[in-house]
Amino acid sequence: MPKADRYHKTFPVTWEQLHRDAKALAWRLLERGSFTKIVAVTRGGLIPAGIIARELNIRHIDTACIMLYNYREEGDAETVLKNADPSFNTPDTLIIDDLVDTGHTAQILRAALPKAHFAVLYAKPEGLGLVDTYVTELSQDTWVLFPWDSDIQYARPIIDLQKKEEA
Question: Which residues form the Phosphoribosyltransferase domain (predicted)?
C-alpha cells in the first residue's frame, strides 16, 4: 500500500463491485442529462468508461492520459501524457475516472474541459468539490485497492493489523 503514513484504511474493490458501481453511476448520469461523448481518464477510468459507454450507448470516446500516483516513489507529480481533444469541451461530454482523491488530476481536467460533466465511482473529501457525480464517498485516509492492482491472497484480520500498528 503506497504512502503508508497517508493511508490507514483499505477499501478493496472486486471486479463485480466495480461493474455494479459503474452501472449505478450510469443510472445517475442518465438522470442528469443526455451525454454523447466520453473522455476516459487513463488508466483507472478506462474500464468504468467502457461500461458507462455501453449502458448509455455512447460511441464517441477519447482519453486523457494523466499519471499522478507513482507507487515506486514518494510524493505525487502530475504528468500529462495526453490531454483530451478540445472539441470534447461541451456539456454533453462525460469525463469518467475511477476515483477523485486529492483532486490534482481533476483540476487538470477541469482546466482543459470546463464544460464537461465529471463523474467518478469513488470520491474522497479533498477532491469531492471537483466532480459532478459519484457513487461512493470514502474517507481521505482510505486506499482504494482496485482489482487490476491486486491478487487474491490471504488477508490478515483487522485486529492483527491494528496490533501491528500499535507495536
Answer: 15-154
Q: Structure pTM?
A: 0.85
Please state, in angstroms and rounded to a whole number, the distance separating the CA atoms of residues 9 and 21: 20
Q: Which of 79, 130, 133 is nearest to 106 (CA)?
A: 130
Q: Which residue among the candidates 21, 62, 98, 149 is catalytic per the annotation?
A: 98
Q: For residue 95, what is the enclosing H or E element?
A: strand 93-100
Q: What is the pLDDT of residues 128-138, one digit of tens each?
A: 999 999 999 99
How far are the Cα atoms of 12, 85, 149, 156, 159 from residue 53, in angstroms, in the given order?
24, 18, 23, 37, 41
pLDDT, residue 67, reads 85
Q: Of the residues 5, 21, 76, 101, which is catalytic?
A: 101
Active-site residue 149, yes or no? no
